[in-house]
Specification:
Elements lengths: L14 H4 L3 H13 L5 E3 L2 H8 L6 H14 L4 E5 L2 E5 L3 H4 L28
Antiparallel strand pairs: 1-3, 2-3
Helix pairs in contact: 2-4
């Protein structure tokens, strides 16, 4: 089922968004479209690159840097569960209104109160 996601105009005026590069902003908007109804996404580089940058040959070598920019501004968080990398957009419900929400099939970023953050996406 297709999901409709919105980007509020105020996002572009957010200072945290303004501190990241143009390509990291494209990544952030792409992650909004990749995320499920609870703001979670699989953080495997192949998933992210295939969804957001399928035609950009240089994206694979730049992805980690862009993700680091998003992490440094608190725009995304990454975690692992059973050695698989996942991500979440922390302020998801503040910025997305989900009609007919479906529960996430991805693990929660907080399992028993513990969060494991991989050093790099996909690692």
């Amino acid at each position: 089922m297709a999901r409709i996601r919105t980007v509020k105009p105020e996002m572009w005026a957010d200072e945290r968004v303004g501190r990241i590069s143009r390509d990291a902003r494209v990544l952030f908007v792409g992650l909004i479209t990749l995320a499920d109804d609870e703001g979670r996404f699989r953080a495997l580089p192949s998933v992210i690159l295939g969804h957001i940058f399928p035609y950009d040959n240089d994206a694979a070598r730049k992805l980690t840097g862009w993700v680091d920019e998003l992490l440094s501004q608190g725009l995304v968080e990454v975690y692992s569960h059973d050695d698989m990398p996942y991500g979440v957009i922390p302020k998801w419900l503040k910025h997305q209104k989900i009609s007919h929400s479906r529960p996430s099939i991805l693990p929660s970023p907080s399992v028993n109160g513990n969060r494991t953050l991989p050093k790099k996406v996909g690692k």
